[in-house]
């Protein structure tokens, strides 16, 4: 699936989880009662949209590869080599668990600097995937991404806590939404990596086809907006 489809599906997953699940699940292992606040709800939407691009860190030609120019491109090439290529280790349940646990550990051991760095990176991914920057892989593109992600991080810095208890869930959920999307294609994913079994339900026969571009992605956006509205109205 295309980057914007992954991002919008991640946003939809977060909005749906926030509307349907108790706060104790969204903030696990921290036990909290009640509902997530409106500010955190909105921040989580954008960050989960960015997190939905993380599994494609194994794709040197993918959306994530160009998000920070030569730096991200080089990192993706290394990750691709280490993980066995596209749709191998990073497209598995093991990866989802790793990034979720890594986010929790980073928050608790490195504190606010880790949180803000992760916020910046996830916002950069969301900006790129949602086509909020000039196309291409030149400085015009990633320079705009850096500026917009930096501005977004500065804004969130005024509201986000040092260790937002919902952030690991958002990162894991976004990654899981990515795997679900790729499993709808013919190639599928090795969800149970390192085992070679591939999981696939080939509903999308070609990346970027009309079903994905004109039906699925718009429905993801409309569904996200509807769920956010529902959650804010019913759980202010």
From TrEMBL:
Keywords: Membrane, Transmembrane, Transmembrane helix. InterPro entries: YdjM-like. The chain crosses the membrane at residues 113-130, 142-160, 214-233. This is Metal-dependent hydrolase. The lineage of its organism: Bacteria, Bacillati, Actinomycetota, Actinomycetes, Mycobacteriales.
């Amino acid at each position: 699936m295309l980057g914007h489809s992954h991002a919008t599906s991640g946003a939809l997953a977060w909005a749906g989880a926030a509307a349907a699940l108790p706060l104790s699940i969204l903030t696990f292992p921290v036990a909290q009662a009640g509902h997530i606040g409106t500010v955190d709800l909105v921040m989580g939407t954008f960050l989960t949209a960015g997190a939905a691009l993380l599994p494609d860190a194994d794709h040197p030609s993918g959306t994530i590869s160009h998000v920070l120019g030569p730096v991200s491109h080089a990192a993706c090439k290394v990750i691709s080599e280490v993980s066995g290529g596209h749709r191998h280790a990073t497209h598995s349940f093991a990866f989802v668990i790793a990034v979720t646990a890594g986010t929790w550990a980073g928050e608790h051991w490195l504190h606010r600097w880790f949180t803000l760095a992760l916020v910046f990176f996830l916002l950069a991914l969301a900006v790129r995937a949602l086509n909020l920057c000039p196309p291409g892989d030149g400085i015009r593109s990633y320079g705009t991404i850096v500026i917009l992600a930096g501005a977004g991080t500065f804004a969130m810095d005024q509201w986000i806590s040092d260790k937002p208890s919902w952030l690991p869930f958002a990162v894991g959920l976004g990654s899981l939404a990515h795997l679900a999307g790729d499993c709808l294609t013919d190639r599928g994913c090795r969800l149970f990596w390192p085992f070679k079994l591939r999981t696939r339900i080939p509903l999308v026969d070609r990346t970027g086809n009309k079903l994905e571009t004109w039906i699925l992605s718009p429905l993801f956006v409309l569904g996200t907006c509807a769920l956010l509205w529902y959650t804010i109205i019913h759980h202010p």
